[in-house]
Amino acid sequence: MRFLGINAIFHDPAAALVVDGEVVAAAEEERFSRRKHGKRPVPFSAWELPEMAAAWCLEQAGLRPEDLDGVAYSFDPRLVRPGQAGLDDRWEDLRTTYAHRAPNFLATALPGLDPAQVSFVPHHVAHAASAGLAAPFRESAVLVCDGRGEAVSHLAGHYQDGELTVLATQELPHSLGLMYEDLTQHLGFLRSSDEYKVMAMASYGRPRFLRELRELVHPTGDGGFRVEPIDWSVYAKALSKGEAWTADHADLAASVQIRLEEVLLDLVRWLHDRTGARHLTMAGGVALNCVANTRLFHEGPFEDVWVQPAAGDSGTALGGALHLARAHGDPVVPMPGADLGRGWSDDELAAWLDVAKVPYERPADLAAAVAAELAADRIVAWFQGRAEYGPRALGRRSLLAHPGRPGNTERLNDVKGREQFRPIAPMVRAERAPEIFGRGPVPSPYMLFVHDVRPEWRGRIPAVVHVDGTARIQTVERDRDPLLARLLEEFEARTGLPVVVNTSLNTAGRPMVDDPRDALECFGSAPVDVLVLGPYLVRRGAVFAG
User: Fold this and answer.
1) Is the dihedral of CA 514, 520, 523, 525 positive or negative?
2) 290, burial (CB in 10 Å: exposed 0-12, middle 13-18, buried 19+)
């Protein structure tokens, strides 16, 4: 059977297609529209649908809207409680109205679709399915934590043979995700967008406000928690966009980060006591906090922690489709990886380069050629295969660089036009990871945990070592990514370093590069030395030789 999932209600609109229980395609609308996060999470934007992403998913499978057996919309307006505390936006009812009418909006966006085919899947159930049904386990405890859904901000449950049992939820206004969003805004960043910047800033601070926060943010012992109103200005003054932060701001970020980790630890211990499961699966925006994930892995009671790579709201499109597939009796298959977006053939890529009239070459050994460029300290824009689903660059749309040059952190942040306090990440072959990185799960293919960099390696790969001595690694397995594995081998042969810098192929405020035109535009506008488009290599010097 064929099920399309749609996320549209808040932010990160996306679409995903599941056919006979297998994930066929998934993509975020931002990659098509080139608007970061697709839209802002305000009630007036609730009607905007991931039209281009949905059309592409169907095209990828050769389907028409009328061929679908169902469409999952990852929000159920019937669960919204009007006037609920904490939802004080005077236009909130407009969001719910739009959601009620989503079947008709979808039928307009996808001509041929019967509105009766659209099913409302509760937001946190869709999140849960994106973890519990997509993970490689028949049984798992599942923890969902984000800003908000219809009426709750958290779900704890248990998946057994594809069936979800909900064990606890947390009613709004109490929300760990909204707390972190509020702090993001107080620190001068964009809420529902820049929370990862707060996580990075926290590494520069001391948790000296932790005692006060423990009184304001605390678990309740029944699988839930309380978040009392917090006056952030008591701890550090509000910052405007671009205004310099101080030690007070870093200390506040560190305090909130640690309190978040402590509450999450209490939630997963409660969940383990109720389920006895070996595996924990996670989704929701809070699950993108890789520092917290690592603490749950080390100090929590579960043997394994698996996080959905598209843990934010975009992942609910996938979860909704998987939920419908399972409800209709399809045997759901774990997701094959995060490379679920658009891809192009070699001939198609060559045609793009010909249209752009740029000189290019096709090296006999691409991995060796690129490794030589990286060893010469050149920055490489790397475009290979199908695009990633979710916010992490995982070797499909990446910027690569030499990790042994300490100035490359600042250099890449300049290339991308972003804040200098933000770290860049390493990519490493899975079999080499344990000797270089400790205190984190291996393999770690989705860049969702942080690992300590072993002391003897910190001076050798300084560009990827954060101020606290950690790195958010991506492990590469030869059978899954043979070209990347060979690139890492060739780079090590030239430098003695089994690690390459990997950060997302984009500039600040722009979505990750998705199609060849995006890649050429980014290459033309940013000081990148080499563009690798499939098997083809473009040198900046040749393009701009005059």
Assistant:
1) negative
2) buried
Handedness of CA 204, 208, 209, 215 (dihedral sign): positive
Q: How far is CA 542 from CA 129, 365, 429, 538, in A?
A: 49, 20, 32, 8
Between CA 8 and CA 30 the distance in angstroms is 12
532: Cβ contacts below 8 Å, ≥ 6 apart: 366, 370, 380, 381, 382, 383, 384, 538
CA dihedral of 308, 311, 317, 320, whole degrees rounded to 10:
60
User: Does the active-site annotation cover 298?
Assistant: no
Angstrom distances, CA of residue 363 to CA of 328, 369, 402, 485, 532: 49, 7, 21, 17, 10
- Residue 234 burial (CB count, 10 A): 10
The rounded distance, in Å, linking the Cα atoms of 377 and 392 is 23
Report in angstroms the alpha-carbon separations of 159 from 76, 219, 240, 317, 426. 21, 23, 44, 19, 33
Give DSSP secondary structure letters for 185-198: HHTTSPTTT-HHHH
Question: What residue type is 55 in one-letter code?
Answer: A
Q: Are 520 and 531 in contact (CB under 8 A)?
A: yes
Residue 469 falls in which region: left (phi positive, over 0), alpha (psi -120 to 50) or beta = left
Q: Residue 231's pLDDT is what?
A: 97
The predicted structure's pLDDT at residue 87 = 58
Sort 1 into a burial class: Cβ within 10 Å, 0-12 / 13-18 / 19+.
middle
Q: What pLDDT is stored for residue 546 in this prediction? A: 56
Task: Give residues with Cβ within 8 angstroms of 545, minimum separation 6.
Answer: none
* Residue from 498, 496, 519, 515 nearest 507 by CA: 519
Q: Are 143 and 128 in contact (CB under 8 A)?
A: no
Residues of the chain with pLDDT under 50: none
**pLDDT value, residue 242:** 84
User: CA-CA distance, 27 to 545, in Å (whole number)?
Assistant: 37
β-pairing, 22-28 vs 425-429, is: unpaired
pLDDT at position 92 is 84
Q: State how far the Cα of 316 lies from the Cα of 536, in Å rounded to an integer.
A: 35
Phi, psi of 16 (to 5 degrees): -145, 150
Catalytic residue among 11, 124, 174, 451: 11
